[in-house]
């Protein structure tokens, strides 16, 4: 097993996910098997290979700096759980 | 023990583009909350970023201005963390391959020396939205305004090359001067256009290893930066001298309460799990583009300072002040060109005008006294029509919109009397009606006589209602009194 239970717990905290006691063993095992597969890939000899960030050699297209977006606040806020005076409302987040 | 302070800065500069870095929503400041946040800024499902060409160009211009290597292939990455003002759950930023590599910035210190501060790199990224915790909000809630979300930033990261507050502030001001001079940032600190994160550590004097550093985030004025560094240095030294150790942490400084404290809520989130953003391809910048931008780069503050010294015979110090802000420099040059008295143009721009602007909280581009008006007044000082003292009255009237210098001089009857015969009569009259003063002058020794001249001057200026040319009066007075000795 490559991944430890406590690492799963930490990842869950960072990702703001709650994984209950029952599933944590299962998740640990399944993620470990994914990592086993990755470990297999690592056995390939890549010493002389240059790293690439993308499989294709294409460049990002750039957009002209022109405002084309208008005010859509009402549409967006119509589907928000809570709004007030134009603000999106969230649970208090300062301690 | 003697301690040495080590400071490095991370500076966030908002780029002066019309639109966001990844969307075509406006970036203008002060709009109603969430009226400038589009589907991309809100991270609606299915949206994809569209990179703003101007933001890329501005970043390259900064790189060129500091003689940095330009990343011809740069990569955007995702920095993952959770916060309500970051709708995507990650900030799109650069890490492994930033657009601007190593460079350097020269700073000038009060003692006249210069020092080079190395830039580690500068990268493009998006700003987060704004969280609002105070004001009229439903109980137990915070508000989120996403107008700022996606505003393009460059984050400039320095090496830990600064050794005291003076150097850190000089560096911050120099960056401000550079980014405003090349027009990539409006420089409005009160609107958050430039924000500083300060990394501070201390070490025993003479040590070559770095101490553990803390990072104080989000300082938006030079004053707060000074205070935050001063407090943090004190705190670290006290801690170590009391047998403790400095913990690497992120701190927040409150400029109002003057207290800094460690951030608590995001501590665990420091594991950002960076990875290349699959939504954005590598940004490839051609040599052509770089050369085009290099040629279009306006004069940089250092070059302008040197030119002011050369062309206008200003002191290095004066030239430095005038050239640090592009608008001030342009204003000065316009005054100097119209008045052909650069030294006076410099003094009035840095003195009376700058004080009046500060007092009225206006920028030089909003000055009620234009460069032409100021130049017109300087011409009247230069041709002896008005004295320096009268000029202050004229300036005040121009500030109030009462017309140009000639109109005001005429309307207020401020014309300086420079006619020799008239002045001689004035001086003679004053000497005649003050025989006691004259006696006293003659009886005094040479050192005291100099001081007593002021008394006569006062009388004569009063008699002329301030309109006598003081230099000429002084000359005539000396001559007449010497004749009596």
TrEMBL record, chain B:
<dbReference type="GO" id="GO:0006412">
    <property type="term" value="P:translation"/>
</dbReference>
<dbReference type="Pfam" id="PF02934">
    <property type="entry name" value="GatB_N"/>
</dbReference>
<dbReference type="InterPro" id="IPR023168">
    <property type="entry name" value="GatB_Yqey_C_2"/>
</dbReference>
<dbReference type="GO" id="GO:0050567">
    <property type="term" value="F:glutaminyl-tRNA synthase (glutamine-hydrolyzing) activity"/>
</dbReference>
<keyword id="KW-0808">Transferase</keyword>
<keyword id="KW-0067">ATP-binding</keyword>
<dbReference type="GO" id="GO:0005524">
    <property type="term" value="F:ATP binding"/>
</dbReference>
<dbReference type="Pfam" id="PF02637">
    <property type="entry name" value="GatB_Yqey"/>
</dbReference>
<dbReference type="InterPro" id="IPR014746">
    <property type="entry name" value="Gln_synth/guanido_kin_cat_dom"/>
</dbReference>
<comment type="similarity">
    <text>Belongs to the GatB/GatE family. GatB subfamily.</text>
</comment>
<protein>
    <recommendedName>
        <fullName>Aspartyl/glutamyl-tRNA(Asn/Gln) amidotransferase subunit B</fullName>
        <ecNumber>6.3.5.-</ecNumber>
    </recommendedName>
</protein>
<dbReference type="InterPro" id="IPR042114">
    <property type="entry name" value="GatB_C_1"/>
</dbReference>
<comment type="subunit">
    <text>Heterotrimer of A, B and C subunits.</text>
</comment>
<dbReference type="InterPro" id="IPR017958">
    <property type="entry name" value="Gln-tRNA_amidoTrfase_suB_CS"/>
</dbReference>
<dbReference type="GO" id="GO:0070681">
    <property type="term" value="P:glutaminyl-tRNAGln biosynthesis via transamidation"/>
</dbReference>
<feature type="domain" description="Asn/Gln amidotransferase">
    <location>
        <begin position="330"/>
        <end position="481"/>
    </location>
</feature>
<keyword id="KW-0436">Ligase</keyword>
<keyword id="KW-0547">Nucleotide-binding</keyword>
<dbReference type="InterPro" id="IPR004413">
    <property type="entry name" value="GatB"/>
</dbReference>
<dbReference type="GO" id="GO:0050566">
    <property type="term" value="F:asparaginyl-tRNA synthase (glutamine-hydrolyzing) activity"/>
</dbReference>
<dbReference type="InterPro" id="IPR003789">
    <property type="entry name" value="Asn/Gln_tRNA_amidoTrase-B-like"/>
</dbReference>
<keyword id="KW-0648">Protein biosynthesis</keyword>
<dbReference type="GO" id="GO:0016740">
    <property type="term" value="F:transferase activity"/>
</dbReference>
<dbReference type="InterPro" id="IPR018027">
    <property type="entry name" value="Asn/Gln_amidotransferase"/>
</dbReference>
<dbReference type="InterPro" id="IPR006075">
    <property type="entry name" value="Asn/Gln-tRNA_Trfase_suB/E_cat"/>
</dbReference>
<dbReference type="InterPro" id="IPR017959">
    <property type="entry name" value="Asn/Gln-tRNA_amidoTrfase_suB/E"/>
</dbReference>
<comment type="function">
    <text>Allows the formation of correctly charged Asn-tRNA(Asn) or Gln-tRNA(Gln) through the transamidation of misacylated Asp-tRNA(Asn) or Glu-tRNA(Gln) in organisms which lack either or both of asparaginyl-tRNA or glutaminyl-tRNA synthetases. The reaction takes place in the presence of glutamine and ATP through an activated phospho-Asp-tRNA(Asn) or phospho-Glu-tRNA(Gln).</text>
</comment>
């Amino acid at each position: 097993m490559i991944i430890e239970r406590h690492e799963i717990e930490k990842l869950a905290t960072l990702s703001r996910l709650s994984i209950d006691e029952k599933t944590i063993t299962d998740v640990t095992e399944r993620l470990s098997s994914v990592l086993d597969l990755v470990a297999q890939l690592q056995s390939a000899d890549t010493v002389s290979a240059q790293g690439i960030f993308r499989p294709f050699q294409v460049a990002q297209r750039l957009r002209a700096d022109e405002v084309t977006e208008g005010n859509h606040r009402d549409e967006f806020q119509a589907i928000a759980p809570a709004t007030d005076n134009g603000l999106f409302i969230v649970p208090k987040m300062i301690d | 023990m003697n301690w040495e302070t080590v400071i490095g800065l991370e500076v966030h500069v908002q780029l002066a583009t019309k639109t966001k870095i990844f969307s075509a929503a406006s970036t203008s400041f002060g709009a109603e909350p969430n009226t400038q946040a589009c589907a991309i800024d809100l991270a609606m499902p299915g949206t994809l970023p569209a990179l703003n060409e101007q933001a890329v160009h501005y970043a390259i211009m900064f790189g060129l201005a500091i003689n940095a290597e330009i990343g011809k292939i740069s990569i955007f990455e995702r920095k993952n963390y959770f916060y309500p003002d970051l709708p995507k759950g990650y900030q799109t930023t650069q890490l492994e391959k930033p657009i601007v590599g190593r460079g350097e910035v020269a700073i000038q210190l009060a003692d006249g020396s210069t020092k080079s501060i190395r830039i580690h790199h500068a990268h493009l990224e998006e700003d987060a939205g704004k969280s609002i915790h105070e004001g009229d909000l439903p109980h137990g809630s915070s508000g989120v305004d996403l107008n700022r979300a996606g505003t393009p930033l460059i984050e400039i990261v320095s090496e830990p090359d600064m050794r005291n507050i003076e150097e850190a502030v000089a560096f911050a001001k120099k960056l401000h001067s550079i980014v405003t001079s090349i027009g990539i940032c409006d420089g409005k600190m009160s609107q958050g256009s430039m924000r500083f994160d300060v990394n501070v550590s201390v070490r025993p004097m003479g040590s070559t290893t770095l101490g553990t550093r803390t990072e104080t985030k989000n300082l938006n004025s030079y004053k707060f930066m000074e205070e935050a560094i001063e407090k943090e240095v004190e705190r670290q030294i006290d801690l170590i001298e009391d047998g403790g150790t400095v913990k690497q942490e992120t701190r927040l400084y409150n400029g109002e309460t003057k207290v800094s404290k460690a951030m608590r809520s995001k501590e665990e989130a420091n594991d950002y799990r960076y990875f290349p953003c699959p939504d954005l391809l590598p940004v490839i910048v051609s040599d052509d583009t770089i050369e085009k931008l290099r040629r279009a780069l306006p004069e940089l503050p250092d070059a302008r300072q040197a030119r002011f010294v050369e062309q206008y015979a200003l002191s290095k110090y004066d030239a430095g002040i005038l050239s640090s802000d592009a608008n001030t420099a342009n204003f000065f040059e316009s005054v100097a060109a119209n008045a052909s008295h650069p030294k006076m143009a410099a003094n009035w721009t840095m003195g009376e005008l700058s004080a009046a602007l500060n007092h009225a909280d206006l920028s030089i581009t909003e000055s009620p006294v234009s460069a032409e008006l100021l130049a017109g007044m300087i011409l009247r000082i230069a041709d002896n029509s008005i004295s320096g003292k009268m000029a202050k009255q004229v300036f005040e009237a121009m500030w109030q919109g009462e017309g140009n210098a000639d109109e005001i001089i005429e309307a207020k009857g401020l014309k300086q009397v420079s006619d020799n015969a008239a002045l001689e009569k004035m001086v003679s009259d004053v000497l005649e009606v003050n025989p006691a003063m004259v006696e006293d002058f003659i009886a005094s020794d040479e050192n005291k006589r100099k001081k007593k001249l002021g008394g006569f001057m006062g009388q004569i200026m009063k008699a002329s209602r301030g309109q006598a040319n003081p230099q000429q009066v002084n000359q005539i007075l000396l001559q007449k009194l010497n004749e009596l000795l």
